[in-house]
Amino acid sequence: MGKLYDGIDDDLRAFIDAQHLFFVGTAPLAADGHVNISPKGLNTLRVIDRRTMVYLDYVGSGAETIAHLRENERIVIMVCAFQGPPQIVRLHGTGKVLEPKDPGYAELRELFAAEPPARSIVRIAIDRISDSCGYGVPLYAYQGERTQLPAWAARKGEQGLREYQEEKNGVSIDGLPALRWPESETA
User: Fold this and answer.
1) Which domain does 136 fall in, by range?
2) Eight-state DSSP code of residue 110
3) Number of domains in the chain
4) CATH of the domain at 112
5) Which of 26, 125, 136, 179 has its CA 20 to 30 A from that of 104?
6) End-to-end alpha carbon distance in the chain
7) What pLDDT digit, counting tens, does each position of 143-167 carry?
């Protein structure tokens, strides 16, 4: 049955590092706001220490996580075993969005592959870590990473990505402010 952890120990870190997919959950404060769950891959999750994680956030069609974190900082990361022994780990905490011009971004960006370009890094201060059995999670065979996102970003180029973000990532679907930096570069 489920267990609570004081921090990310070596075994838990090895489990997290071995997974190819994780999920990010956030929600706005408004009761009628939209809860968001985003699947993430492409080797973008890093454990920094026993109570800190970061993930690289690539350009996407929405910016719900960014908007929710700017409003209330609540976040949960869920990692599931799709191969090997069943396990689910949830890491609850507070998240901070770092955009490329923010202090600390450049240092954390070095933890990840240079391409494709990212719109932000999310740093999470973890206050609760738990696991559960994962018996209901199906077994899937990992076949590799998809190539569409890096290819799309390369086709867009730096200016095209900036324009895309200005159009799609300034506010959430609920109208909450999201990205700041694309607008500041053209202003």
Assistant:
1) 3-186
2) T
3) 1
4) 2.30.110.10
5) 26
6) 54
7) 999 999 999 999 999 999 999 999 9
